[in-house]
Amino acid sequence: MANVNFMGTASLAPLSTTELALTNGATAIASMACLALYDAWNLVRNAEVALAMSLEALHGFSDAFDPRPHQVRPHPGQAETAQDVRRLTEGSELLDRMPQKVQDAYSLRCSPQVLGAVRDALRFVESTLHTEINAASDNPLIFMDLERENKAISAGNFHGEPLAFAMDLLGIVTAEVANIAERRVYRLTDPALSDGLPSMLVAKPGLNCGYMMPQYTAAALVSDNKTLAHPDSVDSIPTSAGQEDHVSMGTNAARHAMEIIRNSEMVVAIEMLSAAQALDLRPPELRRGPGTAVAYRFMRKIVPTMQADQPLSREMQRAAELVHSGEIPAAIARQAGEAVERFFR
């Protein structure tokens, strides 16, 4: 019978027990998963910055980020996101300017609950990966303390189910980051929802499409994520004449999670671009928060304020690359004299 190595290809010659132990593990899934987790944490930090910019652009209420509501529902991530947004918008004169409103829409008001739940889920993923990358997932495993001559134990540590579950969860929660970000982009472009901003964030709507196409792009990517986020771990297909009759599909789960993160980076980038355009349409004398001011300057390095229609595809790609790089959260933390991991909890 041909053996299968870690790349999933069949070898014609039988492997020795020792050779099989070195190649028959879950290391490919684990390596992809670690890269995806790193990018997911970076995505959350950028999403909090984009949220803070939209909150200012929409004249949102600061009450939803007051620490007290989060103390009485003490999910750790929820309190952390609320704290991050408070710090990003500290001293902003753009918040709490609409006393006739009772409360903000869910995409603003409930963002600590959503992004906070993402944070908590990422910690579960992180715990799983910490165990995995410090473990032996080979098969067979060689135990030198066995008294018998054959010191190999053939077990199932190579099975990728723990990683498959973790990657399915990672894909689902990062898809939600894009989901709620796109809803804020939509609010920014709809004059019925944006508290005085012009339609499509352009001075002469009708003649100009403004930020309509970026919102279309965000909506399309969110819909793509919904398909990609279908759990891979619920699937299995038998191979090897029925010997390998249940598999995790963990590599597919990790690959799909990475694709969802790329899509979500673009959606968050579109929110930043849209919020920067919206901020230019608010009174210029109103002070922005220290974190949102940094992010605004980054966006204006990419594209000037839109006065009339112009192609934005290149600018959207540059903004997505900027989100992926982590430069904006790093610059905000550096301004505060802190490490990124400390500023963004």
Query: Could you say how many structural domains there are in total?
Result: 1
Please give the CATH architecture: Up-down Bundle
How many beta-strand runs? 4
Tell me the helix content: 55-70%
Please provide a written account of the structure:
This protein is mainly alpha-helical. It has a single domain (21-235, 246-343), classed as Fumarase C, Chain A, domain 2. The protein has helices at residues 17-23, 27-57, 67-71, 76-88, 106-109, 111-133, 161-189, 212-228, 250-280, 290-302, 313-325, 327-335, 340-343, and strands spanning 3-4, 10-11, 141-142, 152-153. α4 packs across α6 (111-133) and α7 runs parallel beside α9 (250-280).
Secondary-structure blueprint of this entry?
Elements: E1 3-4, E2 10-11, H1 17-23, H2 27-57, H3 67-71, H4 76-88, H5 106-109, H6 111-133, E3 141-142, E4 152-153, H7 161-189, H8 212-228, H9 250-280, H10 290-302, H11 313-325, H12 327-335, H13 340-343
Antiparallel strand pairs: 1-2, 3-4
Helix pairs in contact: 2-4, 2-6, 2-7, 2-9, 2-10, 4-6, 6-7, 7-8, 7-9, 8-9, 9-10, 9-11, 10-12
List keywords for this structure.
Fumarase C, Chain A, domain 2, mainly alpha, disordered N terminus, elongated, 13 helices, two-stranded antiparallel ribbon, 345 residues, two-stranded antiparallel sheet
Question: What's the short version?
Answer:
The chain has helices at residues 17-23, 27-57, 67-71, 76-88, 106-109, 111-133, 161-189, 212-228, 250-280, 290-302, 313-325, 327-335, 340-343; strands spanning 3-4, 10-11, 141-142, 152-153. By secondary structure, it is mainly α. The chain has a two-stranded antiparallel sheet.
